[in-house]
Each structure stands twice: as C-alpha cells, then as structure tokens.
Amino acid sequence: MNPRTDPAEDVLHQHPWRPVTIDGCQLLVKSWFGETAYRILLTDMQCVWEERMDAVAIESRAQGLNRRLRASVRAFFSHLCEVAQPCLSGGGRTGDKAQISVRRWEDGNITLRLKSELAGLPFYWEFHCSPAPVALVCVQLVRPLLAMSRLLQRQVEHLEDLLVRKDEEIQDYRENGATLSRERLQTDIFDKQPYAEDFIEKTLPLLWSEPSDALGFNADLQQLHATIVAYRSARKRKRPEETGAEQNQPLPEPSAQTLTPDGDDPTRDEGNQNSSKQVEPSEARRPAAQTKQPAPITTCPVERPTSKPKKKKVGLFK
After folding, report:
1. Which residues have C-beta within 8 Å of that of residue 299, sequence separation ≥ 6?
2. Chunked in runs of 10, what are the mean pLDDT values of the chain (318 residues)?
3. What global pTM score does this model have?
4. In 10 A of CB 155, how many CB atoms?
5. How far apart are CA 62 and CA 54, in angstroms?
C-alpha cells in the first residue's frame, strides 16, 4: 500500500517519535489510535516496523485471540486503547494487570503481545508489525531528522556569531575602563575552530560510552520534531491551494477576442490586408446559401472594441 494514499498518514506524520522500553527493548514508537483503527511504527535504529489495522481486522483478530469474550469491536478497541496506548506513547505503565512482551521472528517481523483483563476474563492482543517500506521510513523518520539536523546546525552558527559579537562588546567595555566586580565571571575569547575540536574530542567518548540501544530523543527534540512536521504539513496544504487558484482563473475566450462568429481571425485581417482580399474571392465561389452571410466582414468592427487588453496597452505606451 502506498503510504500517501492512507488518510491517516498525515495524522500519524504529526505525532512525534517517543522513546519507550518494552520488555527490556528500547524502541522509538510513533502511534495513532482513532475511533476503531490504529497505526503504529516501531524502530530500534536497525529496522523500522509498522502495522495498520481497521475495524474489520481488529474485530477478526480480537475474536480469534479471545474466543471466550463476546463484545463489539468498539468495546474491544476501547479496552485496547486504555491498556496499550499509554505504553506505546511513553506516557506510563499499562498497569499491574497488563503485560506486554516483544518477540522477533526470523523473517524480520516483530510481535508485541499484550495480556490484560476485560470483564473479569483474560484479554489478549497482538501487534503484528512487519518491516516498513523505504518510502514510509523516509517520510516518517529520515526527512524530519535531516530537517532537525539542519535547523540545529543553523542555530549553532547563529550562537557562534552571537558569541563573537559579545566578545567584541566586552572588549569595547574594557577599552573604556570597565572592570569585572567578580573575577570568576571572566571568560576566554571565543574561537570557533579550537572550540569545535575540543568539544568533539571530549564529547565523542561520552557518546560512545552510552549503551548501543540508547535513543536520546528527549522532550526538546520531540517538540522540535513536531514543530518541523507541522510547518511542513502546512506548506504542503498551502501549495495545492495556490496551484488550484491559479488553475481556476478564467482564461480569455478566443471566440470573443480573437475569432469572429464564422471562425475567422480579425487581427489577422487587420494586420495583413492582402490576406483579407484573398478571402473575398473564396467567399464569392461559395454557394448562394453561404455567401448571404456577411458576418466575417460586417462584424469585425463590432468585435474589435471587446479587445480591452489591446486598447489599454496602446494607451499606456502613449
């Protein structure tokens, strides 16, 4: 299925990636729960999995996993949202009576198994996630992360320029006799290249010392991701509206500006008198029923005043 044809795709696109830990496995999760449908995306930074379910599929799986339970699809789905959504959104635990586990399969799929209680009976659910297509991964993960990287890089460059200007301002104060009241507030002059080298040298060891499955997607990055996606979605909605407005502009009707009722071109007759003289013999050779129509000759002066752009253009040049 092409992800662009899914009506829930834009809604899911606006949800941020949230770091969650399920059964000891650290994942980035993006989920959307509608009235009787859901979409989830999972990634451990080695693979991306997805599952999309509608009301019919949810009802079929719920009845297959819970043969002792008889309920409507809305009842099944309401309980599923109550139990699973907090865990998948990183908002909290599913509760003492709910358990969720992860199982990886040799074919590359991944299954999240959930067990809870509904109406005093065990309730089971399984999220069957398969590897997501490359196009979906690019839209939901790669492009937003690249946009975040570019935005943060520009922020760093802006802060570097600000530090340079601050140093120049402090130097001006010193040259005019200003002194610090506390020596501990004194700082070195900012030099971009040595600072960058020193930062990388000190930070890289700390970065690689973290666990390999650590996903540092904190609240600030989640907010930045949501802001970028919302801005991009607004621009995508604006472009079709502008394109549609341009396409809906009425075009000039050729019958009113350039053609006579018989289909002749009055501007061509005005620009070239020889061509109009050649038309008259051909009119004379037509049958009598047709030669009685003098419209091409008599209506040309009538149609010329309707060519408003030409009159305006001549007037402007005068």
Report:
1. 260, 261
2. 54 84 88 90 93 93 88 88 84 63 92 89 93 93 90 93 94 91 89 90 82 67 82 74 56 43 45 43 43 44 48 42
3. 0.64
4. 11
5. 12
